[in-house]
């Protein structure tokens, strides 16, 4: 058995006891008690029949009393098992969801979000989350089925040793059920990519954020067709596996039915010859159906356990990948209290998973402490990739990034990010109160109204909050009945204010790196110009702590204030210098700047 499967089984067997130890132990006990009830009742039936035929009143009364007690215990354990299993499943469900969330959010980088294999595994775990939650219930079923099977084998052996062949033949059905589960889960595994795509398209079709574009371009039917096609592929794959498994199940039932009829004939002959009792025949008839039910129960338990173990294999794989990613990022060094020399990139190359070529190639760059830097270039030039490397969301494929001479890779990602701040083009719209939405930028001071107000002022966003119905206490977002929605530009101003939280009134832990990725993409030109004045002021203020400000913008007229402009082209540095130097060089930057300048002059 492979290591992955063993780790999946181990995780399955332990998860329930980690999530709900007392309930899990109680469930196993109740399952074991329920498992011996049917064999006990069958044994009592044998004694009852023989007692009646042999006129043994004491034995008949005793057997009837046992049957009544078994029925009472079955009724009680049925109620108890339902309550225990349901509660335990809920506990495990909550535990697994929290564990998956914890594992995912603690991964230092974002590579796992952009790998199809990992995305498929995560989607599969999400789709099968109920199967993970039923881990305890499945374990109860397996324990009960095995105990029940063992008791039946003992009773059949008591009639005649040859009858032990019946459970052996019943194992054929167990094997076919296992094969059926393997086929089903294999099919589910193969089509999960189609299911993930269908779910993504469904979210697009239903999302208010895409509603206008979907209707303007009239792509509703196209989306419905693509969704239908992908769901059809999922259904076809699973139906084929179900049909094949059904053939195996049918063949197993025919084989067992024939063997059961032969066993009845064998025992009937024994009763007629006096070698066996009428009670033995009654016991066989009862146990024969129980053998079939038990084989079915064992088969169902194994099928469920097969599906559960399959999910836990993925769960174990994902946990291991997360641990390896987290372990690979373990670093003991702290970032410096302030930058004295700056950041240096030496022969840095980076490529995304499954990409055709590297996004950055042989980047050599030195950024002095306290400098303001602008990254410019066409889409796909590598600007955002460089920012991801600087924030340790990715590690370079080749080369080194040095921070005051020490490798950035040796610095703890969590501690480094405490000394960075950023505003991104694809900013998050956190639907909290306005104060909290901004305060998230510095968690230790999330309720510090003075700091939040200073960050709003630094981002030229105070007017946005002051215009809200309840000011900073206003609930934002359309997810709430009393929530207030904002325009794209207003949301971006709050995102920028969030990035300034660590830069204001924070003398002991000011950020060493401030990243602004298209921070004014949703603003009008007048607001953009005013905001860049604030950004320039923040960059100048950061020089006393050596803070490096990195600005990404497509509007070249707004990057002239930068101490250093870096022009990226196809993942390489095309040129670098100040605005006057690059204009005088009459290279790529000058060409792009003049093109934009002419375009603005030509606007009415």
From TrEMBL:
The chain crosses the membrane at residues 20-38, 59-84, 139-172, 250-271. Keywords: ATP-binding, Membrane, Nucleotide-binding, Transmembrane, Transmembrane helix. One of its GO terms (molecular function) is ATP binding. The keyword GTP-binding does not apply. It comes from the Bacteria. Pfam families: ABC_tran. GO terms for cellular component: plasma membrane. SUPFAM superfamilies: ABC transporter transmembrane region, P-loop containing nucleoside triphosphate hydrolases. Residues 25-291 form the ABC transmembrane type-1 domain. Residues 343-595 form the ABC transporter domain. It is a multi-pass membrane protein. Its main location: membrane. It is found in: Cell membrane. This is ATP-binding cassette, subfamily B. It comes from Microlunatus soli. The lineage of its organism: Bacteria, Bacillati, Actinomycetota, Actinomycetes, Propionibacteriales.
């Amino acid at each position: 058995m492979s290591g992955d499967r063993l780790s999946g089984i181990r995780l399955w067997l332990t998860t329930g006891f980690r999530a709900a130890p007392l309930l899990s132990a109680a469930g196993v006990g109740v399952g074991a008690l329920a498992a011996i009830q049917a064999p006990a009742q069958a044994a009592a039936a044998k004694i009852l029949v023989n007692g009646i035929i042999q006129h043994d009143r004491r034995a008949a009364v005793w057997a009837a009393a046992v049957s009544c007690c078994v029925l009472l215990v079955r009724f009680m354990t049925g109620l108890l098992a339902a309550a225990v299993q349901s509660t335990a499943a809920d506990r495990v469900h909550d535990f697994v969801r929290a564990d998956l969330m914890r594992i995912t959010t603690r991964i230092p980088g974002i590579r796992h979000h952009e790998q199809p294999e990992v995305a498929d595994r995560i989607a599969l775990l999400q789709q099968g989350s109920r199967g993970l939650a039923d881990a305890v219930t499945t374990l109860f079923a397996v324990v009960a089925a095995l105990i029940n099977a063992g008791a039946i084998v003992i009773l059949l052996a008591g009639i005649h040793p040859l009858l032990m062949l019946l459970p052996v033949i019943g194992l054929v059905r167990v094997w076919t059920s296992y094969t059926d589960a393997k086929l089903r889960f294999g099919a589910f595994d193969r089509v999960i990519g189609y299911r993930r795509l269908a779910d993504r398209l469904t979210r697009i079709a239903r999302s208010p954020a895409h509603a206008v574009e979907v209707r303007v371009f009239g792509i509703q039917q196209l989306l419905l067709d693509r969704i239908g096609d992908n769901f059809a592929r999922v259904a076809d794959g699973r139906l084929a596996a179900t049909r094949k498994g059904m053939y195996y199940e049918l063949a197993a039932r025919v084989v067992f039915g024939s063997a059961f009829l032969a066993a009845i004939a064998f025992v009937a002959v024994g009763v007629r010859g006096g070698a066996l009792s009428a009670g033995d025949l009654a016991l066989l008839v009862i146990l024969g159906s129980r053998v079939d039910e038990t084989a079915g129960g064992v088969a169902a338990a194994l099928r469920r356990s097969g599906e559960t173990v399959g999910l836990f294999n993925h769960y174990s794989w994902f946990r291991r990948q997360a641990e390896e990613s987290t372990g690979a990022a373990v670093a003991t060094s702290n970032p410096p209290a302030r930058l004295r020399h700056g950041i240096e990139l030496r022969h840095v190359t980076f490529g995304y998973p499954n990409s055709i070529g590297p996004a950055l190639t042989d980047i050599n760059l030195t950024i002095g402490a306290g400098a303001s830097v602008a990254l410019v270039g066409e889409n796909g030039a590598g600007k955002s990739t460089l920012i991801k490397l600087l924030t340790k969301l990715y590690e370079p494929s080749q080369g080194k990034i040095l921070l005051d001479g020490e490798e950035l890779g040796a610095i703890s990602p969590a501690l480094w990010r405490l000394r960075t701040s950023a505003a991104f083009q694809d900013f998050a719209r956190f639907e909290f109160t306005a104060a909290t939405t901004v305060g998230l930028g510095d968690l230790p001071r999330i309720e510090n109204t003075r700091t939040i107000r200073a960050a709003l002022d630094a981002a030229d966003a105070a007017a946005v909050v002051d215009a809200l119905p309840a000011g900073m206490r206003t609930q934002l977002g359309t997810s709430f009945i009393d929530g207030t929605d904002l325009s794209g530009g207003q949301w971006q101003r709050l995102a920028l204010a969030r990035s300034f939280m660590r830069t204001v009134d924070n003398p002991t832990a000011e950020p060493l790196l401030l990243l602004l990725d298209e921070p004014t993409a949703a603003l009008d030109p007048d607001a953009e110009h005013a905001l860049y004045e604030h950004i320039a002021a923040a960059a100048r203020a950061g020089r006393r702590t050596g803070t490096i400000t990195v600005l990404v913008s497509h509007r070249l007229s707004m990057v002239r204030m930068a101490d250093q402009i870096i022009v990226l082209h196809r993942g390489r540095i095309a040129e670098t210098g100040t605005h006057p130097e690059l204009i005088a060089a009459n290279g790529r930057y000058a060409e792009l700047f003049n093109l934009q300048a002419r375009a603005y002059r030509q606007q009415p």
